[in-house]
Amino acid sequence: MNNFSFKNLRIDGLAVAVPNDAEQVMDYEKYYPDGEIEKFCVSTGIYQRYVGHRKKIIASDLCVTAANKIFDKLGLDRNKIDGLVFMSQSFDYEAPATAGIIQMRLGLSNCGAVYDVTYGCAAFPFALQIAGSFINGGCRSVLILIGDSVTSPYISDKDSFLFGDAGSAMIISKSEDENAEINIRLETLGEKFKALMCPFGKNRHRYYDLANEVGTENANKLLRRYMSGTDVFTFSLIDATKATKKFYKDFGCIPEDFDFLAIHQANKMIIDNVVKKIKFPQEKVNITLDRYGNTNGVSIPLSICDYFEHHPLCGTKKILTLGFGVGLSIGVASLQLDNSRVLPIIKSDETFDDGIYCNAYLEY
């Protein structure tokens, strides 16, 4: 099943947090010859990003900050949260699930349906489908958290500058207004999974096996994201655009029906080409990657929050969202959202001391 339509959902609150540590990509110019960094910035459209590694801020910290702001600023009742889903590729631990720790940090004692879901760039549309299913199953309100923290002090190549850290929180509830419709199309192309992945370091190719085979130094080099640029570019231009056109047809809509497009902020070239192919007006595409980089699954909610931050009195807007990436997966969704339900982007210094220290566990 690819298409989903929920006629009884509303978004009660949406917030995004980034680490309070902005980094200018051009600051790394001294490490690269012949203006390579400037060329990188021009070609990708990325000039600044927010990084958490210096302050030890990770994805779950940013999601907790965003969720607490929604509860505090919008006056929403924590006790009405029946489900919590944390969608990420940056979990706190190998085990247990990070979602349970977030539940504890937020004080959601009445929330029993708590899940981690591994998802990347298409997380937002998939999150809407999960929330809709929870609500139809009996939940009153669902808290969806999407976050990733992938920046590192170890710069292996220029691709490292593509990514920024961010976390989002969204509360979705049942609505009595049948015009509060959310339509979604989801596609997964599992046969193309090798185009974008982190192949090494988990159970299929364990770190200690790599270290024995190629040495520790080379094993460390393999613990990174692999991307076939040509395959990912082709996937974005062909598969993501086909899915969007199918969404237009199946749900009887056209680009002109929407106030703006919140598209996954992969890089400037991909965005420009995809927008052209889906025939969406360029002036109605909200761009954030110049200031925040590619924030993986958070790039869509970040784009939405950024739009409302710069249009604070705009009222209710009809939004088209398009996410595509690791999986390979595609999600297209349409929704309506009022500016009063969306908070400005938060700059956060908040982290979490879990009381776990290496020396104590070495003695275990």
Rounded to the nearest angstrom, the distance between the terminal CA atoms is: 48 Å
CATH class: Alpha Beta
Q: In angstroms, what is the radius of gyration?
A: 20 Å
How would you describe the oligomerization state of the chains in this entry? single chain
Strand residue percentage: 15-25%
Largest pleated sheet: 6 strands, mixed
**Succession of helices and strands:** EEEHEHEHEHEEEEHHEHEHHHEEEH
Sheet/helix structural class: alpha/beta
Number of DSSP E strands:
15
Q: What's the CATH H-level homologous superfamily?
A: Thiolase/Chalcone synthase
Helix content, binned percent: 25-40%
* Biggest sheet strand line-up: 6-5-7-8-2-15
CATH topology: Peroxisomal Thiolase, Chain A, domain 1
Q: Taking all residues together, what is the mean pLDDT?
A: 89
Report the total helices: 11
Low-confidence stretches: none
Write the layout of secondary structure elements.
Layout: E1 3-6, E2 9-19, E3 22-24, H1 36-44, E4 48-50, H2 59-74, E5 81-88, H3 98-106, E6 113-118, H4 123-136, E7 141-148, E8 166-174, E9 182-188, E10 196-197, H5 207-214, H6 216-222, E11 226-227, H7 229-251, E12 260-263, H8 268-277, H9 289-292, H10 299-310, E13 316-325, E14 329-338, E15 346-348, H11 358-362
Parallel strand pairs: 2-15, 5-6, 5-7, 12-13
Antiparallel strand pairs: 1-9, 2-8, 3-4, 7-8, 9-14, 10-11, 13-14
Helix pairs in contact: 2-3, 5-6, 7-8
